[in-house]
Amino acid sequence: MASTSPPRMVATQEEMKEAKLDVGHRDWCAHLAIPLNKCRRQEFYLPWKCEHERHVYDKCQYQEYKRRVELAKAKHAQKKK
Hints:
Elements: H1 13-18, H2 30-42, H3 51-80
Helix pairs in contact: 2-3
């Protein structure tokens, strides 16, 4: 079961702005998106490069998704009472 408490925001607004991170990607996993995008730019977006960074970012996104699902289930169960 995933923790429903929000994770700690690691990347600051200044870091995300400096990294030119899209507003849609400025979430709990932004601190992982910054090095991923940097690696992608350096490697000319070759799909077999930056695999580790992509895996770590995707795992963070999946854990965040599971947290939101648990919150929605808890909210739904609360409404039923």
